[in-house]
Amino acid sequence: MAYPTDRKYTKEHEWIQPNGNTAAIGITDHAQESLGDIVFVELPKVGAELTSGKTFGTVESVKAVSDLFAPASGTVTEINGDLATSPEKVNKDAHGAWMIKISLKNPKELDSLLSSSDYDKFVAEEGGH
Amino acid sequence: MSSVETTPTSPAPTVRKTALNAIHRQMGAKMVDFNGWDMPVEYPAAIGCGIINEHMAVRTGVGIFDVSHMGDIRLAGPHALDAVQHISMNDASRLAIGQAQYSALLYPQGTFVDDVIVHRLGEDEYLLVINAGTREKDFNWVRDNTRQFDCQVENLSEDFTQIAIQGPKAVTTLQKLADADLSAVKFYWVTRGSVCGLKNILIARTGYTAEDGFEIYIPADEGTSTRVWNEILDAGKEFGAVPCGLGARNTLRLEGKLPLYGHEISDTINVWEAGLDRFCKMEKPEFIGRAALEKAKPNVKRTLAGLEMVDRGIARDGYKVLDHAGHEIGYVTSGSPAPFLKKNIALAYLPLEFAADGTMLKVEIRGQGVAAKLVPTPFYKRPKKAA
What angle do CA B263, B143, B204 make, to 5 degrees? Predict the structure, then answer.
């Protein structure tokens, strides 16, 4: 799997794609694959404040419940309403199916996140044990 | 994102593998530790699998499962029937040779050691099929409680690879590989015959999916097991046969309200609470647990009930059930999305006064009470055959 280079990644398997002072957030293809069939996505409301490293929502597959962690701090400006009725879109296209968009509090926070190649390496090591 | 499997398992000192372990890995299955066994939870989406597809294959076509982690105990000898009658709650004297019944081993308190399928294989020969997580406990229990009978107790758990072929197309699939007339084998009956060229194979029309199907017991060597597994998948290809993991096994059994040890039944839950009355034959003068059950009958306070989520949310194992005012009244034993019914369902122990169909309740999900209603169970019943 080639991870897109236009974004940054967390060790909790979220991606964040910056666009000026805003950013889209989703989960990685690796995450959707390990979760299996995704049946439920619970997201914050527009206007909610996110703190880097804190949970902002939940994604559930048939078998597992997973917290979503904010890759960066900011205010939610948009949520992907499609995922309420079609959560399986995350399985089909994890890197296209963004979950929320935020206005970044401090765009520099992204500097400390993983690059696509670092994330790729991280996943390979995690899977190799 | 951090993930929690919703069915916790306790770690075991050594991980055990079935003879089909290599083929599961080769097929790309996601493996989990299940009661000390390295087992497939689901197979990859790339080969048409995943829990939902596997589940649907069993409801509409055929799916196959490695269930070799199940244990097998053979009781044979002049007093084998007396021994089985003493340790199990159903009435094994009603079994014809070749017939099987759902039953349970009970503690003297009337709570569960395990649930079992009792097969009568011969005049004085019975086979108990038991759960993976309780294999050693069950065998010791059976051996220790049958010493007074003239009957040999053998643990055959290591001898078999057990494969379940489940779904409306199971009979047609397996028939291609078997010489016995499988359509003549009734549900909960067992026969012997050749399968994939192997002679004298035990073929039982049983399963844990609330669907028609078979479970076969073949020699546990890797070569034979792999060959039979592949031949069954091949034979079922025209019906969309897929390999199925423990994930689909769980959602299938939940739709059919089939109990899982440690969830709906355990050493703290009795037969009446679990609603398994029809498998417990109080007209039998004696069996372990009988006296306690007789006393417990008028004092039953909780029952296993079916819930369907009304608002958005999935009830999971262990979640609290709340009454309308928000007071905790019970807990979820198993909860999941139901892939065939396309609803979020759960089983829960609730006080009797809350257990009427249609009662509106709440399930506490991440601190929020989410609306659910009591529904009749089983959630799913397989359609009666047309012919």
Answer: 60
Task: Report domain extents, chain B.
Answer: 21-70+159-255, 71-155, 301-379
CATH 2.102.10.10 fits B301-379, yes or no: no
Rounded distance between C-alpha atoms, residue A36 and residue A12, angstroms? 16
The architecture of the domain spanning B21-70+159-255 is: 2-Layer Sandwich (3.30)
Q: In A, which residues are within 8 Å of B50 by CB distance?
A: 36-37
> Chain A residues with CB inside 8 Å of B5's CB?
63-64
Average pLDDT over residues A13-19: 97
Largest CA distance in chain A: 40
Say how far apart CA B342 and CA B337 lie, in whole Å. 7
Say if the Cβ atoms of A37 and B2 lie within 8 Å: no
- CATH number for position A50: 2.40.50.100
Please indicate whether, in this complex, the C-beta atoms of A63 and B52 are within 8 angstroms of each other. Answer: no
Quick check: pTM over 0.90?
A: yes
Among partner residues B2, B45, B313, which is closest to A66 by beta-carbon distance? B2
Does A18 map to a domain? yes
CA-based nearest distance B46→chain A, Å: 10
In a domain, A77, yes or no: yes
Task: Quote the crossing angle between the two packed helices B51-60 and B246-255, to the nearest 10°.
Answer: 50
Residue A54 lies in a domain: yes
Chain B residues whose beta carbon lies within 8 Å of the beta carbon of residue A67: 1-2
What 3-state class would DSSP assign to B127? Answer: strand
- The answer to whether B118 touches B100, Cβ cutoff 8 Å, is yes
User: How many domains are contained in chain A?
Assistant: 1
How high is the mean pLDDT of chain A?
95
Full domain range(s) for residue A55: 8-106
Say how far apart CA B102 and CA B128 lie, in whole Å. 10
pLDDT in tens, B338-358: 999 999 999 999 999 999 999
**Residue B326, C-beta contacts closer than 8 angstroms, at least 6 positions apart:** B362, B369
* Cα dist from B343 to A63, B275, B303, whole Å: 14, 23, 22
Q: What is the spatial distance between Cα B38 and Cα B44, in angstroms, rounded to a whole number?
A: 17
d(CA A127, CA B14): 21
- Name which CATH class applies to B71-155: alpha beta
Do residues A68 and A58 lie in contact, with contact meaning Cβ atoms separated by under 8 Å? yes
Question: What is the rounded distance in angstroms from the CA atom of residue A86 to the CA atom of residue A91?
Answer: 10
ipTM > 0.90? yes
Residue length of chain B: 387
pLDDT at site B8:
47
In a domain, A128, yes or no: no
DSSP state of B48: T
> Which ranges of chain B have pLDDT less than 70?
1-13, 385-387
Determine, for residues B42 and A59 on separate chains, whether the beta-carbon distance falls below 8 Å: no
DSSP letter at B235? H
